[in-house]
């Protein structure tokens, strides 16, 4: 195993990130991992001279140096996967709930982009967009509508407040933002019936492919566990980059999901789940990925 050196004494501004990267390369790094934040990754992505394989732990748009790769937990990809899952269930109209926060608006935009994309079938429409500011009266006229689903571009606390005001038969979808773990069944009862996607690390902790990696003790929060799992899969991807085995060892069944390489981006397909009786459990719905369905060991591989 190659020695690991950590560089942490830098800010997330452009010059500081690039300077730390240059220092790592000058010190003989054969591969560089990081930075983690979106701003830090954007700063590094603007550089054209990336001399060694580099794995940035976030995802940004643009044109990049050939040796710069991206891997992260971007929720926009989850929102697009949720849209594909809902399409596979034969739903044709969507009601979107947003809170107008930057994260909520990013989720809304990503979902709408995928939902209205007619390249893979009949065109889907946005029936309504609702801004939730804490007043449940905005849901007073929501009814069960044939072939219609609701997408919650909201976090767990907001989704728990919203769900009881929605018709029980209305299909409701969300991202991993609604899942904070299965240790609080009472709070999760308010989310019963909500479909979402998250990583096997949290949804399948007893699966052999997950159990081979040590879990933190004491347990971390759900958000911290996701970062921990990101570290596991990032290390596995680094091994592939060093060995030059990207063409032979991908897709990778990771603890964060199935991982494929699309251009310079390692795309992660999360696991479909649904809340039932206060707990998140695997959904019967097939995973919706591009270009192929997810096949995490022990999970359904039925194609739509």
Structure commentary:
Helix 1 (14-26) packs across helix 2 (38-45) and helix 3 runs parallel beside helix 4. The chain has helices spanning 14-26, 38-45, 75-88, 102-115, 156-162, 185-188, 200-203, 208-211, 222-243, 246-249; strands at residues 32-33, 54-56, 68-70, 93-98, 125-131, 148-153, 172-174, 194-198, 252-254, 257-262, 265-269, 271-276, 279-282. With 304 residues, it is of the alpha/beta class. The protein starts with 13 loop residues before the first helix and ends in a 22-residue tail after the last strand. The strands form 3 sheets. Strands 5-4-6-7-8-12-13 form a 7-stranded mixed β-sheet. Strands 1-2-3 form a 3-stranded parallel β-sheet, with helices on both faces. It has a 3-stranded antiparallel β-sheet with strand order 9-10-11. Among the domains are: 14-70, no CATH class; 75-204 and 270-282, Response regulator (Rossmann fold), CATH 3.40.50. Mean pLDDT is 89; it is low at 288-304. It contains 10 helices and 13 strands.
Which characteristics define this entry?
alpha/beta; Rossmann fold; 304 residues; 13 strands; 3-stranded parallel beta sheet; 7-stranded mixed beta sheet; globular; 31% helix
Explain the layout of strands and helices.
Elements: H1 14-26, E1 32-33, H2 38-45, E2 54-56, E3 68-70, H3 75-88, E4 93-98, H4 102-115, E5 125-131, E6 148-153, H5 156-162, E7 172-174, H6 185-188, E8 194-198, H7 200-203, H8 208-211, H9 222-243, H10 246-249, E9 252-254, E10 257-262, E11 265-269, E12 271-276, E13 279-282
Parallel strand pairs: 1-2, 2-3, 4-5, 4-6, 6-7, 7-8
Antiparallel strand pairs: 8-12, 9-10, 10-11, 12-13
Helix pairs in contact: 1-2, 3-4
């Amino acid at each position: 195993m190659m020695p690991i050196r950590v560089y942490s004494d830098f800010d997330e501004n452009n010059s500081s990130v690039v300077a730390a990267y240059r220092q790592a390369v000058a010190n003989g790094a054969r591969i560089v991992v990081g930075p983690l934040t979106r701003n830090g990754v954007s700063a590094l992505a603007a550089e054209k001279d990336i001399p060694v394989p580099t794995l940035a732990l976030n995802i940004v748009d643009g044109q990049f140096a050939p040796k710069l790769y991206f891997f992260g937990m971007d929720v926009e990809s989850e929102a697009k996967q949720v849209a594909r899952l809902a399409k596979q269930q034969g739903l044709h109209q969507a009601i979107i709930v947003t809170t107008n926060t930057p994260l909520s608006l990013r989720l809304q935009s990503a979902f709408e982009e995928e939902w209205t994309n007619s390249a893979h079938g009949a065109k889907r429409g946005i029936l309504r967009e609702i801004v939730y500011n804490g007043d449940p009266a905005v849901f007073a006229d929501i009814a069960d509508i044939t072939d219609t689903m609701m997408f919650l571009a909201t976090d767990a606390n907001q989704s728990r407040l919203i769900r009881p005001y929605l018709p029980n038969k209305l299909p409701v979808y969300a991202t991993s933002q609604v899942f904070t773990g299965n240790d609080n069944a009472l709070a999760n009862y308010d989310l019963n019936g909500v479909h979402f996607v998250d990583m096997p690390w949290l949804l399948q902790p007893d699966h052999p492919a997950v159990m081979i990696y040590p879990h933190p003790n004491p347990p971390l929060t759900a958000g911290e566990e996701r970062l921990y799992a990101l570290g596991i899969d990032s290390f596995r991807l680094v091994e592939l980059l060093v060995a030059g085995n990207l063409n032979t060892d991908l897709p990778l069944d990771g603890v964060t999901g199935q991982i494929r390489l699309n251009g310079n981006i390692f795309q992660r397909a999360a696991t479909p789940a649904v809340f039932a009786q206060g707990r998140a459990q695997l959904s019967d719905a097939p995973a919706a990925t591009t270009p192929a369905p997810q096949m995490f060991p022990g999970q359904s591989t039925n194609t739509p």
